[in-house]
Amino acid sequence: MKAKSIGLIGFGMAAGFAASLQVTALAQRGADTQPLPLDELRQLADVYGLIKTDYVEPVEDKKLLSQAISGMVASLDPHSAYLDQKAYREMQESMQGRFVGLGVEVAMEDGYVKIITPMEDSPAFRAGIKAGDLITRIDNAPVKGMTLDEAIKRMRGEPKSKVTLTIARKGDDQPWVLPLAREEIRVHSVKAKVIEPGYAWIRITQFQENTLPDMAKQVNALYAAEPNLKGLVLDLRNDPGGLLPGAIGVSAAFLPGEQKIVSTAGQIDDANQVFYGRREFYAGRNGGDPLAKLPAALKTVPLVVLVNGGSASASEIVAGALQDYKRATILGTQTFGKGSVQTLRHLTSDTAVKLTTARYYTPSGREIQARGIVPDVMVDETAEGDGLNSLRVRESDLVKHLSNGKERGAAPATAAAIRDELEEAQFARAAARKRTPLEFGGKDDFQLAQALNHFKGLPVKLSNVEARAERPAAIDKRK
């Protein structure tokens, strides 16, 4: 079943995975402006007038106009949104790596709030909430009939304030009631450690304002502890993206020279750009270079990049660039497939429109939108199978998602292919419910273990599941 929409509780962004954001001011385009559709605008004015005069009770002008703007922008695609004062403030906090919430990534499915994944070390994660769980009530109010935004607002609040969720888990006879305390969650976007002598792991959880200096600090600490690294794992699993300069800088840290990292294409001139691994693209022209003191060995150390269905947007830019230049082996499962750029157009000092303005492409020109990055080595999430990764909503599942060239010319999937895929997903859900949440970088991290085997020339246990994009065709071949 395809989810209707997706949000991030605690991230403060109800419009899906964090965008690769650019910020510009809204400007009049003069001669480029299209003529206004007067008949349609008259209809809008007529409806506005009817509500003001005939509705059962008075409605504030500000509320009507804000909701009209919000609905108009939200109708475009899952990532465009009108940001009022509160949403704009929350988005800024998210990019700075701090926010208040429960720490779960959610989607609306069949009228309920479905857990896609709990954030590491969040209130939800510590309470045992798992991917696939359904929230049926919030503070005893039925979720059925709420919009996702309404459910999110009920779950948000002040730090240490309480909220009670009623959770339904498939396979359990009765729902269970779970009291939680909201927290201000501070995400340290970079973690790193030496896994064993000669091999290290560095994880980026989200691309934020401080990601590049944090990464530089962690990398230098790794090389201080282990000067002769024989292999480095860059872990981008469940990284929803974030700020575009961070993705450019992380890519540039591992690539020689000032290579092309990503290009964008859209309707306006500003949306057609090429970004290179140069300081002005990841640190601004007037800022210092956070990558200046990285060890030279980082450019040549054998590199594996771990990805999964939760790797989106900026993390896909990094994986795509390193894959195109054959700088790294991409290992894991197919990524989310968010290949669009959102630009903030300020309306006032504290409100804005987050508008999808371009698609982005890897250095070789591959389109990522609604496709994602297919790993060089497909490896399941656990030794038992794909597990939680099969529960994830991907870009291609979202209603009104931007299509790609392949989708526009594709034939619809056969009934048999859809049935087989649903059976496969149900089997994966049943297996996933029996597992505890995976600790990335822990001793039971199957994909990380396979990355180490790859470095050492040992056999790598590969996935038995085809890439999601190719699955319907593969199913037809098996018939």
From TrEMBL:
InterPro entries: ClpP/crotonase-like_dom_sf, CtpA/B_N, PDZ, PDZ_sf, Peptidase_S41A, Tail-specific_protease
Record domain PDZ: where: 88-156
Any one of the GO BP annotations: signal transduction
Keywords tagged on the record: Hydrolase, Protease, Serine protease
Extent of the signal sequence: none
Gene Ontology cellular component list: outer membrane-bounded periplasmic space
UniProt similarity note: Belongs to the peptidase S41A family.
Protein name per its UniProtKB record: S41 family peptidase
Organism of derivation: Massilia cavernae
